[in-house]
Specification:
Two copies of one chain form a homodimer. Chain A is of the alpha+beta class. The first copy, chain A, has three helices and seven strands, in the order αββββαββαβ.
């Protein structure tokens, strides 16, 4: 159902589990000149939303303010002898909300760095990006095409 | 040196080693409507070139024919307790040449699948994408910014 932007349809249990495991996600946005821009980011779940936290208003946020069309892609742990390791490609519409970034990043630090880790940056408000998932692709039980 | 498109400048020994280890790479291209498109692909080295092989003329190849500006991004193996795992983001100009895809993919199958594996698709000519690397970013010894 391309064009259907109800997010909850697409977050299967398997995809939620993959996200909860803390894969480094590649966030693709569009630069002002129309070229692609990619950053590696932490992602997490907040209820039914996929979210990420950012302490500064950097290039990817400025790109999203201009064009909310993004792609998040990330791989599951590697399996030897497999043609293509499981991976997910999420086409999404991104929106930025101010505040809450440090608390989110500190929560994700427990997943991405270790259970006793604190997010290693000064506390601050920052920004949260919320992703409305429009299509889930890739290879794995979450792929809808 | 953004804008400098000499590829050989940027492929450090560490980056060549990371590519040779067979990371699943995220290839970002631009769709006709200006939105980002991402596929997970195998990549390899052919002399000083970064290359990938494709049996069919699919969406990413059609996107590259229209706009050669792409980003390749991939992560090194995960290290516990590290703030951001090493990863590479390569801004590149892509060009497509016909033929040779199956042989390249069969060589890469030894890296991505296992030393005794044959590429699991019918033999054919296909296409090779060659990437002229314009900037290397990310986190790791290969990052130039």
């Amino acid at each position: 159902m391309p064009g259907d932007d109800r997010q909850t349809t697409w977050l299967s249990a398997e995809l939620r589990e993959l996200i909860s495991d803390g894969p480094l996600a590649h966030l693709a946005t569009i630069n002002a000149d129309g070229s692609p821009q990619v950053s590696a980011i932490w992602i997490g779940l907040e209820g039914e939303d996929v979210v990420s936290g950012h302490m500064g208003r950097n290039l990817k946020l400025r790109n999203i303010e201009r064009d909310p069309r993004v792609v998040l892609s990330f791989t599951a742990p590697r399996e030897p002898g497999v043609f293509l390791d499981p991976y997910a490609v999420l086409r999404a519409s991104a929106r930025i909300t101010p505040g809450g970034a440090w608390d989110l990043l500190n929560r994700l630090a427990k997943v991405y760095m270790g259970p006793d880790q604190e997010f290693p940056a000064p506390k601050g408000e920052g920004f949260i990006i919320r992703y409305t998932i429009q299509r889930v692709g890739g290879v794995g039980p979450w792929a809808t095409r």
